[in-house]
Specification:
Largest sheet of chain A: 7 strands, parallel
CATH topology of the largest domain in chain A: Rossmann fold
Largest interface: A-B, 84 and 82 residues
Helix content of chain A: 10-25%
Number of domains of chain B: 1
Number of domains of chain A: 2
Number of strands of chain A: 16
Distance between the termini of chain A: 52 Å
Order of helices and strands of chain A: EHEHEHEHEEEEEEEEHEHEHEHEH
Shape of chain A: globular
CATH superfamily of chain B: HUPs
Radius of gyration of chain A: 21 Å
CATH architecture of chain B: 3-Layer(aba) Sandwich
Distance between the termini of chain B: 58 Å
Number of strands of chain B: 13
Structural class of chain A: alpha/beta
CATH class of the largest domain in chain A: Alpha Beta
Largest sheet of chain B: 9 strands, mixed
Strand order of the largest sheet of chain B: 9-8-7-10-6-1-4-5-11
Number of helices of chain A: 9
Strand order of the largest sheet of chain A: 5-9-4-1-2-3-10
Shape of chain B: globular
Oligomer: heterodimer
CATH architecture of the largest domain in chain A: 3-Layer(aba) Sandwich
CATH topology of chain B: Rossmann fold
Strand content of chain A: 25-35%
Order of helices and strands of chain B: EEEHEHEHEHEEEEHEEEH
CATH class of chain B: Alpha Beta
């Protein structure tokens, strides 16, 4: 048996889909018995969603006022304390998990396995290195707790037909007040979430301006797609950082991906290699994006994209 | 603040196309160009700008690795750091051992701020900064795209999945840098000459009195699964037909 504790990612109301992908990874460990930990000010609603995930045995709800925001320095000591008796402690390889989990690993005195893409054994995993240019098999010490982050693009969310028990856990440990949340700024949008959307349309530097990015938004809306961008487009200020797809942005795996005016730098390709079908539209027929695209069209995006948008029913 | 400590890791240059060795024992590094980890270069640039604003005194750069890492430390000194420390190890070491070495040096140097890259582009672990903050019992602000110092505290804007988060941390703190924090300066030739005279101290990792961490073994390397090149279409009608064929539209 392998006792696995997964930290749930949420915004106080809704469970983030990354959690269901972590559960899918954990379920690949032989004899996995999976518990979820929900740290919140009032985690009732999130715990209900967590309890519905398949494979989950128990949901441990830790309600404290200090958990209103997901600050790594505040959650890490609580998660480390809760980890006692577990063989594995996992979190998603999102900015939430990347921030939190190494802090937990250090408190537990172990190194972390970052970006788990497959489970090879209870202590053996595969993970990408060198921006995805190599995959390494790693073996964690058998006599120590395994702390890891899960590369969410490598897993499909588990179903929600479960009915785990929800238990409230009292946590009275002193928590630091040296880190304080000020604000979060987010380009609110009604479009599908980039990280979980089945379809994504991304634009690159060739768009040339913020205004021209409207072409991408219109096509995306016609397709019911999320919108992403290359690093070059974000660096140029056309769109905000949360839209960046790639090694240093979001790593995604939609069923259908449009790369428009994106040359296909390696760091961008790393973010989309698990996509189902990749469509590339670029005026440069030599662009590296065409080497990985399932369907490629050479031409002027300013002519093609509006026409394509109109042509889609 | 009196001092900023900056970590510089020696890594395969970001322009090098990394290849897995035929026997799966690692990646080809023979004769490959090595550089400062790009995120660490951003960390040093930020430290220099903080000092140029008159908000910091000394900038100390530190690397953990083989004696070859002196090259990257010299580059850091040429960029403008005042002093360098090499914690010498026989080969690559794990993030937790690195964090413990940083903690030991932070204890000796008492920096008001430790700036590190958010991840190294070789192992892509993204662990050392958070681990140092945990062991030190100090705040962490990861993935920083803006840093504002206000005496005893810092306001850091972080690039997170939903947008930009701002947190306030008491100092000293560990801040890890993201790409859009700044654009590092180029090193000028006269500065390279001047850097040769700046102090670079070497201390053996084994002499730090740091406990080695349980190591995660790397047992085999393989190239990633490659996507196959698909078809090229001539026009929008062809594109739509291809997508309908695949059943994705």
């Amino acid at each position: 048996m392998a006792r696995i504790l997964i930290v749930a990612e949420h915004d106080g109301e809704n469970l983030n889909p990354s959690t269901a992908k972590c559960v899918a990874c954990a379920a690949d460990v032989d004899g996995a018995e999976i518990d979820l930990a929900v740290f919140a000010a009032n985690g009732g609603a999130v715990a209900v969603q967590a309890a519905a995930l398949d494979h989950v045995a128990r949901v441990l709800k830790v309600d404290r006022a200090e958990n209103e925001q997901a600050l790594a320095a505040v959650i890490a000591p609580q998660l480390a304390a809760l980890a006692d008796g577990y063989d594995h402690v996992l979190g998603p390889s999102t900015t939430f998990g990347k921030d939190l989990m190494p802090r937990v690993a250090a408190l537990l005195g172990v190194n972390q396995i970052s970006d788990i893409m497959s489970v090879e054994g209870s202590h053996s995993f595969k993970r990408p290195v060198y921006a995805g240019n190599a995959v390494v098999t790693v073996e964690a010490p058998a006599d120590r707790v395994v702390v890891g982050t899960v590369r969410t693009a490598s897993y499909r969310a588990v179903a929600t037909a479960g009915s785990a028990a929800v238990e409230s856990v009292d946590q009275s440990a002193d928590l630091p007040d040296h880190t304080r949340f000020i604000e979060i700024r987010s380009g609110q949008s009604d479009r599908p979430d980039l990280q979980t959307a089945a379809r994504v349309v991304s634009g690159g530097r060739a768009l040339g301006s913020s205004e021209n990015f409207e072409l991408i938004f219109k096509l995306a809306d016609k397709l019911g797609a999320g919108v992403g961008a290359s690093r070059a487009a974000v660096d140029a200020g056309y769109v905000p950082n949360e839209m960046q797809v790639g090694q240093t942005g979001k790593i995604i795996a939609p069923e259908l991906y449009f790369a428009i005016g994106i040359s296909g730098a390696i760091q961008h390709l790393t973010g989309i290699k698990d996509a189902g079908t990749i469509v590339a539209i670029n005026k440069d027929e030599e662009a590296p994006i065409f080497e990985v695209a399932d369907v490629g069209l050479v031409g002027d995006l300013f002519a093609i994209v509006p026409e394509l948008t109109d042509a889609i029913a | 603040m009196e001092k900023i400590l900056v970590g510089l890791k020696r890594v395969v240059d970001y322009n090098v196309r990394v290849r897995v060795k035929a026997d799966g024992s690692g990646v080809e590094t023979d004769g490959v160009k090595m550089s400062i980890n790009p995120f660490d270069e951003i960390a040093l640039e930020e430290a220099l700008r903080i000092r140029e604003r008159g908000e910091a005194g000394e900038i100390v750069v530190m690397s953990i690795g083989s004696s070859d890492a002196q090259q990257q430390l010299r580059t850091g000194l040429a960029m403008g750091a005042d002093r360098a420390i090499l914690v010498e190890t026989a080969g690559d070491i794990d993030p937790l051992s690195r964090a413990r070495a940083f903690l030991e040096i932070a204890g000796r140097e008492q920096p008001g701020l430790v700036l590190l890259g958010k991840q190294a582009i070789d192992d892509d672990n993204s662990q050392t900064g958070q681990m140092l903050a945990a062991l030190w019992g100090r705040p962490q602000a990861t993935f920083a795209s803006q840093i504002e110092l206000n005496g005893e505290t810092a306001r850091v804007t972080r690039e997170v999945d939903v947008g930009l988060e701002t947190i306030e941390v008491d100092l000293p703190a560990v801040v890890t840098t993201d790409l859009r924090l700044n654009e590092p300066r180029y090193v000028k030739l006269p500065d390279i000459m001047k850097a040769k005279k700046k102090p670079l101290d070497t201390v053996a990792f084994d002499d730090l009195g740091v406990e080695a961490a349980p190591v995660i073994r790397e047992t085999a390397f393989e190239p990633p699964a490659q996507r196959q090149k698909g078809i090229m279409v001539d026009d929008i009608a062809g594109l739509l037909a291809a997508l309908r064929d695949k059943g994705v539209l």
